[in-house]
Each structure stands twice: as C-alpha cells, then as structure tokens.
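Today's session is about reading a structure prediction critically. Students often jump straight to the picture, but the first step is always the sequence itself: look for stretches that repeat, for charged clusters, for runs of hydrophobic residues. Only then move on to the predicted structure, which in these notes is written as discrete structure tokens rather than atom positions. Here is the chain we will use throughout the hour.
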Amino acid sequence: MLTIEQIAVHHLPREAFAGVQANERNTGYAHMIAPGAKFVLPRGRGRIDADEAARLARTCKVALPIAPAGQSLSDLASAAVGELEHCVDCQVLRETTHIVVAQSTLNERIVESVAGRVQCELGLKVVLPLALGQCGTLGLYAAMPLADGLLAGGGQILFVAADKWLYPFFRTYGDLVSYGDAAGALLMRRDHARGGTCVLGSALVYGDAIDAPWDLDPRELERKLVALAVEVSADALQQADLRVSQLDCFAPAGFGARFRAAIADELGIDAQRVFARDDGVHLSSADTLSTLHRIQTMLAPGESRVTLLCDAAIAGMAGALVVELKGRAPVPLH
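Below is the predicted structure for this chain, in token form.
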C-alpha cells in the first residue's frame, strides 16, 4: 500500500484576473512564433478573437494565484521543495530514491530540467529523476501506477507538481474553471510503519480526446468532464473496496460549483460531505496536493478521514484517489 508521508504547498498571493489567456509573455517562448508553432499553440495561433473572448470569459470576478514575472516554473518547484524541507527531518529527505516532477506543459524537456534542479539543490546523488508531461493537471494521479512499480522493492519518491501559465495559453474556460499558478511536493513510500496518508485506491480514465476544448461552450465541456469524473471516481472506490456511504469527505478539484455538485449527485454523495473551496479556482497540477494538505491540517492528531479526490483534464482524461488522511502533530521548524 502506498503511503504519503508529508505534503507541502507553495502558495502565491492572489490577484484579480478578468481575461482568458495568461498575460505574461516570456522570451523563453520565443520559439513559438516560428511557423512550426501552430502545432503547439492553442488553436494554431496566439491571440484569441472577440467571439472566443466572450464565450470563454467568466461571468463573475475571480482572484487567481499568479506568479510574478521574475519567478519561473523551476523557482516555484524549488520553493515547494523548500517548504517540504521545513516539514521533515533532513535524514528523511536523504532516503529519496526517485524524484518525479509533473506539470501541465507539453514540453517534457522543461520538466526534466526541473527534476535535475531539485536533485542538485538537495544534494541527492544516487537518485532517478523522472518527468511526467502531457497528462494535464493529473500528474499526481498519473504518478500512482508509476510509484507502485518504482517502490516495489522499497525506496522513497519525492513528487513535485508545479505550473506557471504563460501567454498564449488559456487560464479560463468560462465559469467552469480558472487555472492559477502553484506548486506542491510530497514524499511517498510503501512502508506504512511511519504513519501518514494511506492510498486505498487510485484510477485513471481516458475518454475520447477533446482536441479543441476552446472551441466548445464551457457547459458542453463541463458535461463531458463530469461524466469522466464520475466514471473514474467509481473505479477508484471499487479498487479501494469501499462504498460511497463509507466516505467521510468528497473533494473534487477546483472547478465551478455546478461541476462539483453534479459529480456528487451522480455518485450519491450528500452536500455535507463535499469539501468546501473557492468556486472555480483550480491550482493546476498542485490542486490535489493542496486539497490533501488542507484537509490534513484540519484534523486533530490521531483523527482520520476517508476521502475521495478527483480531477479532470480538459483534453479528456480524469483521475481519482481514495485515501485515509490522518491528523498529525505539528512538526517543529528547523
């Protein structure tokens, strides 16, 4: 059984966001103005037109965590690992055998460089750095079967999830979801002797590919993603050998209230067990880590809560986890 030993999240200050596309332009993306950029840009071009802006804009104001221009994706990941260092003994970090970094980008080379930076900063010499890409915001869910195999013979994974959105990529899809910048880190083992959060079940579902989510009305996109989230949640519960009635908490990702309520209704989960959070603010690849961390900090030492978490990627995938979270005594800073 996989165990999540410790979680840390690097949060950013929020600022009002009224657009659709990310605002920051970075010279590191200069290659995207080349002719071949049409294969990686949303819709094959940069600036959106007036019709797209009207269809994909939110109907209400939102404040998103947005990294300043001087803070890179790599800086965010490093900051999250730094937060984790404050939560665990340095000897525990030295037991890391694998570093897995995930982000929503399609550029795996960027993720690989982040894994290398984390390894270097921690001074870990005999570890295997790995990068996960092309799975949208589902990095943690995609890492679960990988971790199951990597840790079969023992060891420890340092998992890092980070995202920073740059122009021309989309932050907002109507009232369905708005993506913010964030980063999180956790340690994962098979050994439950030291306590921690037990992973009781996990699942991934690959639906029909949504090649152009920006071409859809956000409500149509919502219907597609709700169906995937319901399916994958049921799969994770089946793997955990649990019924819905045995759940203490249901924590879907940071989509809008209608999306979250629709999944709960389909699964037969009453509103009292749905974890409350900001309406439609999604912390990208770090969203599930942030939710796990928030719920755990609410628990008294020794208190436990069986929780179902799920997320959906707008390209047509969904992931779910069933975990038993346990309250922990505060760790003194060092």
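Discussion point for the tutorial: The chain has two domains: 3-189, 197-326.
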